[in-house]
């Protein structure tokens, strides 16, 4: 899978193909990453897709910026 795939989102079936694990395990990996704030989930009629959670990166950059500015 290309690194750009995370920008387009990944599904459990993408994870199955990439990691070579069972579908239930792939789903657990994705949900675990979501609970840690690494991924965020989009729910559509086609199912779940997970994306890189940019909110946490933006918040961290803002903290660094504000800390330096003061």
TrEMBL record:
The keyword Coiled coil does not apply. One of its GO terms (molecular function) is phosphatidylinositol-3-phosphate binding. SUPFAM superfamilies: Winged helix' DNA-binding domain. Its main location: cytoplasm. Keywords: Cytoplasm, Endosome, Protein transport, Transport. GO terms for biological process: protein transport to vacuole involved in ubiquitin-dependent protein catabolic process via the multivesicular body sorting pathway. InterPro entries: Vps36, WH-like_DNA-bd_sf, WH_DNA-bd_sf. It is found in: Cytoplasm; Endosome. It comes from the Eukaryota. GO terms for cellular component: ESCRT II complex; late endosome membrane. Belongs to the VPS36 family. Component of the ESCRT-II complex (endosomal sorting complex required for transport II), which is required for multivesicular body (MVB) formation and sorting of endosomal cargo proteins into MVBs. Component of the endosomal sorting complex required for transport II (ESCRT-II). This is Vacuolar protein-sorting-associated protein 36. It comes from Arachis hypogaea (Peanut).
């Amino acid at each position: 899978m290309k690194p750009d795939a995370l920008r387009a989102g990944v599904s459990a079936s993408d994870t199955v193909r990439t990691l070579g694990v069972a579908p239930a395990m792939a789903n657990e990996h994705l949900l675990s990453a979501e609970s840690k704030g690494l991924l965020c989930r989009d729910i559509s009629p086609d199912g779940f897709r997970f994306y890189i959670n940019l909110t946490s990166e933006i918040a961290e950059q803002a903290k660094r910026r504000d800390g330096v500015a003061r």
